[in-house]
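Suppose a classmate hands you a notebook page containing two proteins, each written out with its sequence and a corresponding row of structure tokens. How would you begin to make sense of it? This section walks through that situation. The first entry is reproduced here exactly as it would appear on such a page.
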Amino acid sequence: MPGQGLRAAGGVIFVEVRGGWSIDFPVESERVMDSGQLREVKEIEIAQLQLRYAHTRIEWPQRVLALASSIERFGQILPVIVLRQGDNRFVLIDGYLRVKALKRCLRDTVVAEIWEGKEEEALVAILARSHSRKWDLLEEAALLRELHDQYHLSQSRIASMVGRKQGWVSGRLALSHAISEDLLELIRKGALSTWAATRVLVPIARAIPEHARVLSENLSKVSLSTREWAQFFHHYQKANRKQRENMVQDPVLFLKALRAKEDAVEAKSLKEGLEGKWLRDLRVIGQMLRGLLKDVATLLSCGQSHLDRRILLSAFEESKEHFMKLEKQIRRYDGDDHPGDEASHFKSLSAGSPTPADQPNP
């Protein structure tokens, strides 16, 4: 029967699995409290749970599947945390993913660690246990908002209770208020990552709310990687008004077109090989040199300070040295192909095509 053979020592959970003892640490990172503060741990009906804080949690479908697989093999390893509300009712404080996984496994009961006290104190307790749980940024923000808005605790009071600075609390509260309910719902369902919401959609919403709304609607049924979100936002920032409108109307089409363009560039680069890269780089250098030539008269005029002139000429000498090394290498390897005259081919390239008048008499 689930829950039998459950022991706790020094914050570690020992569970009897098929006659042997297994030591395990939290998948969702809940831990029972230190041995001196252990509450009652027992099996209760899932139907007795009040999922009052489900709106503060992200569903994480893949994690639920992993938990369900673990539960099918080994049973429930760690208890969820609940707060007693009368004799037969309990508020689920922590362990929402575990309860989802148990339901997926068609289980009717859950092993729970039962706390007594006020809900706000329980929320503070799980937030303060940062050493044993890695919260998602928006989950933290949602719980802090509960403490601030529903239980009317000041930011300084919350910070003191959870052992954080007030700036940490205010920053997360500001983030929670900046994200619309529609976006939060997408994040909770796992359709949108916290990274995409905070790094892309929130900045867009601050500037052009309508673009953020349309974009979130169009992406609610597709899943983009972090790289794709970063690419989209990078190009969105550089685009003009009409281009931005097209991008938010059909972001998937934009990304497909972008990938096609990148593939074409990569194919061209592979086809041209190192020779093509060399030619492109030399053309760029040539353009830069032509630009520098135009500035020589102004930069090295008689009115220029001695220090600035020295800095400019030092930079020129350094660049000239590299160019001379390049020329030396070209002469060397070009000469390998023409052993009779080490620099014959190089000279012909630098001199251009000879005319009949340049040829020796027959």
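The notebook's second entry, a different protein, reads as follows.
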Amino acid sequence: MTRLAITGHRGLPAETEKLVDKALRAEVDRHAQGGALVGLSCLADGADAMFARAVLDADGELVAIIPAAGYRDGLPAEHHQTYDELYSRAVDTIALGYKDSTSESHMAASERMLDEADHVLAVWDGQPARGYGGTADVVHAARERGVPVTVVWPHGSRRE
């Protein structure tokens, strides 16, 4: 069984989301070839949700890592329906004890996800994090632990 985690940018332009979704699906399918696949995700908008859908579409199991009790409320309102649908399809949930959804709780959730992961997919432009707990911080933490990281940033992708 492969336990595959996700970290990545949110708020990507639509054309970049299409490129990233296709590339993520290819990576998930590649990892699913070895047998059972478990995807670990915080289910945020952007890379997390794209990855979660790709895992489910590949007949993998989804484990939701929830940073804080107020996490869902801190996500964009237009993402709540997607979050709820993905959350309902998770076979397991790991909820951290934080009350508020903050950069600290998000990084703690990423660290907890790394505790479970065999490999990390990172939707990352290679730039420093824009705030504590950003994608670059998670990639750095994974590499420090020796967890393999595959960067998914297809040619033509950009951030705003």
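A careful reader of the second entry would note: The longest helix spans residues 14-32.
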